[in-house]
Amino acid sequence: MTMKSMFQSLGMLSPWAVEVGFAVLGLLAGLALMPILIFYAGVSTLGRYEGASLGGIYHVVLSGLGQPSIASWVVVLGPYGLYLLLRGLRAWWRLGANLA
Q1: How much is the pLDDT for 21?
Q2: Please, are residues 30 and 76 in contact by the beta-carbon 8 Å criterion?
Q3: pLDDT band for position 7 (50/70/90)?
Q4: Is the torsion defined by CA of 31, 32, 34, 40 positive or negative?
Q5: Whether this model's pTM surpasses 0.85
Q6: Which of 32, 35, 44, 88 could join 57 via S-S bond, C-beta 3.0 to 4.6 A?
Q7: 42, 75, 48, 45: which is closest to 59 by C-alpha?
Q8: What percent of the chain shows pLDDT beyond 90?
Q9: Is 77 exposed, middle or buried (0-12, 13-18, 19+ CB in 10 A)?
Q10: Closest Cα to residue 60, out of 51, 69, 50?
Q11: pLDDT of residue 89
């Protein structure tokens, strides 16, 4: 089952509704999943360091959203930005295939 068919089964038939659904999923992944992945990637590569905790990572990321912290915004917007990048590359690839 593809993501689009899953959105259509939820009644989200317009392209705008599907795009908003992908944006919400990307933002939720950025807020919920990315700090966990960053924490465990750091622990597995560098080891535990004093004062490090998963709650601390969440605190830093969420408090950075209220301040001009580029790192926090990249963490939160990263999954949706990756989706947009892949979508743009796919469109570019199709355009090149149609021109050849």
Answers
A1: 85
A2: yes
A3: low
A4: positive
A5: no
A6: 35
A7: 75
A8: 62
A9: middle
A10: 69
A11: 94
Q: At what angle do helices 34-46 and 54-66 cross, to 10 degrees?
A: 130
**CA-based R_g, the chain, Å:** 18
| CB distance 26 to 19 below 8 Å | no
- Alpha carbon of residue 11 to chain centroid: 23
3-state secondary structure 24-73: HHHHHHHHHHHHHHHHHHHHHHHCCCCCCCHHHHHHHHHHHHHCCCHHHH
Assigned token pair, 42: 């750091």
